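name: query_chain
kind: protein
chains: 1
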Amino acid sequence: MTRVVDEERRRFAAAVAEAAGEVVELLGAYQIRPGVPFPVAELLPLLTARQHALQVAVDGYPGPLAVDPAGRPDPLGGELAGLMSWLQLLRVLYRGLDDVPEPLRIAAGRSFAAAHLAARRVRDRTRRLT
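structure:
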């Protein structure tokens, strides 16, 4: 297991908190509502950029994410993986659409809400580490 210096972990946490916080803001501002167009084509590139920022933070972190520096299980790894999975799901499912069609709105609303919740959890957890 690679030893991670506290400063490296703080930098990682700060980068993740920033990207996750931006996802929280975006998904809070764009909510699917009945009868109201949902600009998914406008939103997806913004979420993709945040997903990329998260991936860069993960790739640049020298230590494991499944355990903390003391070797104990670290829930951040799983929560971050979950957030990144939700962002990928949104990116794949809704690419090429200008709006979410009515038959997909309930499922899309659930998916966007789940991604929003995952982003809030990651943001809050990483803020405590900085």
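note: The chain has a mean pLDDT of 94.
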